[in-house]
Design goal:
alpha/beta, Purple Acid Phosphatase, chain A, domain 2, 2 domains, six-stranded mixed β-sheet, 7 helices, elongated, binds manganese (II) ion
Length: about 350
């Protein structure tokens, strides 16, 4: 039995993506979802598991119709999904009344339930959020032996969202546990309980690879692999500058770095090191490709401390520098020297 496990698609989210991409990002989440559905059709996947937060917020009726259309194109694959903390089953939500295609099996109850698929000798268990938070440990219902293969779908893993414990999950008797909510793909228990991670990165802190889990349950057991497929990656990078660099050369350095790591990706840069005291970095003008969300300037001016000392011997600045003269570059004392001199100069206290 072949399955694909996805989670945290967050349709309807508007990810922060830099000036050039922000407008198109919501569409890219839909495109990624649509590609997974197409893949299920191509690979004749038996079951598509969606472990919560298909939507970023309450789905609109037209959005459910679009999703259902995609599901209805599947000639072979059955779909099981639960609602997560973002798209929880609120009073009046369209989730409650929507008529899904015959191959779709929503598990929308707030107590653990299951669907059985005799033709696959499979039972899938799960429950949905009916509130934004669930603080109880709810993944503690044992597989009941309803079918040869039994899978648990669950959304959570932090203290406000269905806390999960390895030793409990391990003892429930499922063949596989498909997890959602944690956006970074990872195994909670190797080859057995996996967070598929967000299908596409949704937030600027969703760094690293994103995609889905492809798995197969055979006589020999479960085999799973993570398949990266996201169209973009959020990358955080520290760039080291030096006192010979100007705005122009830092801008070139940033552009070259973006070209090397991929112009499709979305960046946050942190500038570190020493800069020429005469240079102020104009970080708002350094985004050539429109895919930088943020540049933090943590550089310090590379002062000529000896010269500053000689000019300021009889004032506060000179006395401050005197305390540190001869300290080693890079040491704690040196950092105190840099920070202190910068503060004194900025505040005109010399
Ligand atoms: Mn979630």
């Amino acid at each position: 039995m072949k399955f694909i496990h996805i989670a945290d698609i967050h349709l309807g989210a508007q990810p922060d993506a830099g000036t050039a991409y922000s407008g198109g990002r919501p569409r890219e989440l839909w495109d990624a979802f649509s590609r997974v559905v197409t893949l299920c059709e191509e690979e004749k996947t038996d079951i598509l598991l969606i472990a919560g937060d298909l939507f970023h917020r309450q789905p609109l009726l037209r959005e459910l119709k679009e999703v259902n259309y995609l599901f209805s194109t599947l000639s072979h694959t059955k779909v099981v999904f639960i609602a997560g903390n973002h798209d929880y089953i609120r009073k009046g939500t369209y989730y409650r009344t929507f008529q899904w295609s015959d191959n779709v099996y929503p598990l929308l109850g707030d107590k653990m339930g299951y669907v059985r698929m005799p033709e696959l000798d499979l039972a899938v268990y799960g429950f949905s959020y009916h509130a934004r938070e669930i603080r109880e440990e709810r993944c503690n219902v044992r597989a009941q032996g309803l079918a040869d293969h039994e899978i648990l779908l669950a959304h959570g893993g932090d203290e406000k969202h269905v806390p999960l414990r390895r030793e409990i999950l391990e003892a429930l008797g499922f063949d596989y546990i498909a997890l959602g909510h944690i956006h970074k793909p990872q195994a909670m228990i190797k080859d057995f309980a996996l967070f598929a991670g967000a299908l596409e990165p949704v937030d600027k802190n969703d760094t690293g690879q994103h995609g889905f889990v492809r798995g197969e349950i055979t006589e020999q057991g479960v085999h799973v692999e993570f398949i990266p497929c996201a169209s973009r990656e959020y990358i955080h990078l520290a760039l080291r500058v030096n006192e010979h660099m100007t705005n122009g050369s830092v801008k070139d350095y940033i552009r070259e770095t973006v070209e090397k790591r991929g112009t499709q990706n979305i960046y946050k840069f942190i500038l570190r090191g020493q800069r020429d005291p005469d240079v102020e970095f104009e970080i708002e003008y350094m985004d050539d490709y429109g895919n930088i969300i943020e540049i933090e300037d943590e550089t310090c001016p590379a002062f000529d401390y000896q010269a500053l000392y000689e000019e300021n011997q009889d004032n506060l600045l000179g006395k401050y520098i005197e305390e540190f003269l001869g300290c080693e570059e890079g040491s704690m004392e040196y950092q105190a020297l840099q920070a202190g001199v910068q503060a004194l100069l900025e505040n005109g206290l010399s």
